[in-house]
Amino acid sequence: MKKIECYIQPYNLDAVAEALAVEGVVGMSVAEVKGFGVQKGFTRGEDVKPGEYRFHPKMKVEMVVLEKDVERIITAITDSLKSNQIGEGKIFVLPIDDAVRTRTGERGRDAII
Fold this sequence. Notes:
By secondary structure, the chain is an alpha+beta fold. The protein is 22% helix and 27% strand.
């Protein structure tokens, strides 16, 4: 199993969620977050002062999926985000050792499908 964390622009959330639904993702979490990347939160042409940052609103989308589905899901996310703009998004893939459905005690694959 793998956890996919995706940081995207808020206005792209519907497109990403729709792409994930089409790919059969059965569950995800979404949170409003703030952050910055390489540009330290500034847009091109602005003066960047040492130690000064601007945090921009982002959406964090998380899901746990089977390892065999990871590349297909990453492709669906990236295909839904084709603006080629700086700050469009980042995807991280992390290993998951186990999952437990608390209601039934199911573990692993059975807990996430």
